Amino acid sequence: MPARKDPDASTSVPSFYGAELRFKREAAGLTLEQLAEGSFRGISFLSQIERGERRMPLDLARHADQRLGTDGFFERRCEDVAKARNTGHPLYFLDVPDLEKEATSLEEWNPSVFPGLLQTQEYFRGLARHVGPLTPPEKVEERIRGRLKRAELWRRPGRPTYWGIVTESAVRNTPLRPEVMAEQLEHILDLIRSTRSVFQVVPQTAPWHPLQHGMAKIMGFADAPPLVWTEGDFNGHIVDYPSTVAEYRRRYDLLRAVALPPDASLALIEEAARTYRHEAQHGDRAELGGVAQEQLQQRRRRGLR
Predict the structure, then answer these.
(1) Could you tell me if 100 and 161 are in contact, meaning their C-beta atoms sit under 8 angstroms apart?
(2) Does the pLDDT value for residue 288 go beyond 80?
(3) Hey, what CATH class is 96-301 in?
């Protein structure tokens, strides 16, 4: 059997804490499986952390401190590792890109905007301008780079299966320029069809439905229990308590039933993309006053041109 290759703790902060975790675990006489037990994390996940390939999430740091008797060491150092791995995402979000890569399935619900994995650069710039108008331009560009890095997931041979759901309002009611929305919708159509993914739209005729408030991302794994990621304007957190994850699962399944079928959803998006493209080419918005603008919005909602 070849000798085990230990991580070089001097190469990075994640490698340093990964090596320290392995040292403390072995000193306690625990296997990877024993340390992972009760953490809702898989053995491979823990092994990658020990090799310095992934940062330790806060929930696992607390679990390790408790099992290894390390007096909060790993919890206190989580932020150090996060800063070392910062790639344009808020600190509270840094676990998500790694989890997305490890997932075998991703199921997303976002009631008001398109999920980050589906966003174009211009769509995100416009979104940032409206929801965070005081955000410095360099910070916006940094976050765009982070999203583009996440979107490399679509080109991976072993990418997770994907299922996304949004409301019709996210498609039709937007302050963004028609050319931006046309490009965004065309991007979603290309992505969903080329990857054989599923995308649904909850119609405006169903204003009340399961998961009424807030976004949710359900992530399934081959060797670990599923997790749910939820997010607000300034924070987000991983839900791993089995009964709560199961409730998210049930409500997401009910939401599928409320949404338009996949083919009808893509047809709606295709029609909306044509409408936006026509507006962009003919300058409809620039020539319309307030009343006419509202009439145009009503026509969009009815799927008319």
Answers:
(1) no
(2) no
(3) alpha beta
Distance CA 20, CA 31 (A): 15
pTM: 0.71
- Residue 77 pLDDT greater than 90, yes or no: no
Q: How many CA atoms lie within 13 A of 89 on its CB side?
A: 21
Which one is predicted more confidently, 23 or 8? 23
Mean pLDDT of 280-304: 55
Query: Coil, helix or strand for 153?
Result: helix
Q: Which range has the worst mean pLDDT, 57-66, 205-214, 296-305?
A: 296-305
Which of 305, 273, 301 minimizes the C-alpha distance to 167?
Answer: 301
| 13-84 and 96-301 share one fold | no
Does 162 or 76 have the greater pLDDT score? 162
Q: 202 phi and psi, to 5 degrees?
A: -80, 120
Q: 122-128: long-range contacts (C-beta < 8 A, 24 or more apart)?
A: 122/180, 122/183, 122/184, 123/176, 123/180, 123/181, 123/183, 123/184, 126/175, 126/176, 126/177, 126/180, 127/176
| Closest among 61, 96, 78, 87 to 238, alpha carbons compared | 96
Q: Looking at the domain 13-84, which fold is it?
A: 434 Repressor (Amino-terminal Domain) (1.10.260)
Phi-psi region of 279 (alpha: psi -120 to 50; beta: other; left: phi over 0): alpha
Cα separation, 261 vs 256, in Å, equals: 8
The domain limits of the chain are 13-84, 96-301
Q: Which residues contact 271 (CB under 8 A, 6 or more apart)?
A: 303
**3-state SS assignment for residue 90:** coil
Q: What is the CA radius of gyration of the chain?
A: 22
